[in-house]
Amino acid sequence: EGMFEAGIVAGASITQINLKGPFAYLSKMEYGSSINPSLGIFYDLKFVRTKGWRLANELLFTSFDVKGDGFFEDFPDYSASSSFSYSYLKTYHALHVGLLAQGKFYAAAGLTAGVVIDEDVEVKLMYETGTTSYRNFQSKKFEFGYLAGLGFRGGSWNAEFRFEQTNGIANSLSVGSTTLRGYFLIRYRILAP
User: How do residues 10-21 score in pLDDT, each as one tens digit?
Assistant: First the structure.
């Protein structure tokens, strides 16, 4: 058995965004979740004599499209509608630690980094006076976070449930943000010299 494995990874993600700060039309909104496909490649370095321990590396395309709405009592009262659509190319680096059945079950923990390759953002305020205004939203171009997961390995396949939390989408000192993702991924080994 070789010291490394490479192959393809595919699955789905569910994404939730959180925004905090003094702007109610961002922080007090009710945002939905987004379910999207994810696809990429992996390259794992295996540790010998460890019952399944390895350093797992992935290059993954992932995206989300989240919308939110809210009504706010102010002077004048207004309703707000926001949409946040982002696509990322991300790297995942995790330690897989074998747990049971000669390492077929494993736990994963590690770090993530991503770059935005496409974005479409709209923040719209509609006042009861009949006027509409649009607010500027400054987006991060890079995303960093951590991951934890559980998986099962069998033959050339393995399946993994993964949770990820990142530093979010807002690039502003006055707006805090986090992005939460859950993944279900299938990895298929193509190369194992």
Answer: 999 999 999 999
